[in-house]
Amino acid sequence: MAQATQAKASEAVPAAEVVVAEAQEVALLADEAAAPEESDAVAEAPAESEPKEPAAEEKKSEAKEKKNEIQEVASPADEAAGPEESNAVFDHVDPQKKALDELKELVQAALANNEFNPPPPPPPTPTAPAEEQQPIKEEPEAAPAEAPAPASVEERKPTSEELPKTSEAAPASVEGPLNPEVVEQPAAPVKKEPLPAPAQPAEEKAAEADDDGAKTVKAFEETVVPVAAPPPAAEEVPPAAEDSAKKPPAEDPAPAPAAPPEEVFIWGIPLVGDEKSDTILLKFLQARDFKVKDALAMLKDAVIWRKQFGIEALLEEDVGLPELDKVVYTHGVDKEGHPVCYNVYGEFHDKELYEKTFGDADKRRKFLKWRIQYLEKGIREQLDFTPGGISSMVQVTDLKNSPRIGKYRQVTKQAVTLLQDNYPEFIAKKVFINVPWWYLAVNRMMSPFFTQRTKSKFVFAGPSRSAETLFKYIAPEQVPVALGGLSKDDDRDFTAADAATDVSIKPSSKQTIEMPATEACVLVWELRVLGWEVSYGAEFTPSAEDGYTVIVHKTRKLAAVDEPVIKGSFKTGEPGKVVLTIDNPTSKKKLLLYRCKVKSCSESN
């Protein structure tokens, strides 16, 4: 019976284990349920152990239900937590800021390694002929060959002629304890000798052997002593060597401290450590489409070129080309506040100036230095590299009456390459006006030298649309009179702060402009019509009904060769208005520019 009960108990245990395996979440309950079944099965009969199986099935079903409930509760929580985890992992990072941070780290490492310096010049080539150097190389090789090497133990073994009578004793002495009868006689004197003492000379040992009449002992000692003697380094030590051995070895000289990293400036701004440095680095990143390694390589090349070209010294140099001040000059700003630099190449129509500037290679090189010097000064004086500042400029190139590219083609290509490689993102817009037909062909030739980003900033306008194109980017009061605007030097009545108005006059139509005066004052105005070929007149009409109209400017025709800008004024003692009338009899549309202001009578005096 005991065996039967044990067998039934062993059958009950797997039922509980099944419950534990299928529902790990309720493992503790399943173990507690299985333990009483085992104890009851051992104590009770086999017939009473069978009813426990339904209970195990109930435990199993309850465990499955609890497991399903846990999964149902956990699944909504996981779904709710999913978006939060994804937002935490995939945070939005500004790629431009990331590229800037990477470039700053690379710049700091490059500064620490002095990588912004020009490469060192190649080492000088040796001048001594090869024949004179050959004996110097042969002497060290021949010296060791002449010095005899110390004899080893094997080389000093006696031959059969030296030991004719001791052929049995000699091998025993070499092999040591294999023949104790022969070794006992010479072994005692050898052990009594102190190790540091030098070995006894062979001549003295030979004399002792002659006195005793035993030649075999002499031969035996000559072969045994070198084996038992101390090493050769301990036998003969000169006094100087002993003193040097006692002295501690001299310490290696400490390496020279590394030179601090060079502080590199570009346009007067350090590459790192300044709020303006980020603006400089961003320019190089933009020029290389935010490829960090390419931007770093471009920055290194630009800094090295500036050192080799001598930019800092060039700023203080007097290049001596004052006649070029009317060819390249800066005047006003565009509608976004960028300084505007004008290049009037029509001045080179003067043959004397052309030859003086591009006559030979030295003159062209001098012109290139002058142009870079002018650009460097303009960058430092007119641009602001603080965050949010204006750090680029607009260039306007006037090609009216410009000579065709001839001698200055090479210097033009060189200038384009230098400016594009070493002055990135300094041009906000490049406007070409009065473009002749032949320049479009030249532009197609020069196009491969420009990047796509640079070409996207180019604007071309022919002679008939040059002024209108300029006015899209630059206000008329900021454009010089010579290029179709109203701005001129030493103007006592108007400044760049006095805004101008532009009006299109349709063909075969009139345009009137009214300027009111509310009290006794002086009205001042100026106007121009591009290309003129119109009629112009001005009159004052008082506000009072019984007042009389006063003709200020009698109507007259204005040709294209007339002065570009007309200025007028009228002092009134009563309220009223000045009316300007412009009549366009042509079949072309005309562009009218004008501005006016009111001055007090005392101010006008």
UniProtKB/TrEMBL annotation:
Residues 142-152 have a biased composition (Low complexity). Residues 317-491 form the CRAL-TRIO domain. SMART domains: CRAL_TRIO_N, SEC14. Transmembrane segments: none annotated. Its main location: cytoplasm. Pfam families: CRAL_TRIO, CRAL_TRIO_N, GOLD_PATL1_C. The lineage of its organism: Eukaryota, Viridiplantae, Streptophyta, Embryophyta, Tracheophyta. Residues 30-213, 226-260 are annotated as: Disordered. Residues 117-127, 251-260 have a biased composition (Pro residues). The keyword Secreted does not apply. The keyword tRNA processing does not apply. GO terms for cellular component: cytoplasm; membrane. It comes from the Eukaryota. Keywords: Cell cycle, Cell division, Cytoplasm, Lipid-binding, Membrane, Transport. This is CRAL/TRIO, N-terminal domain.
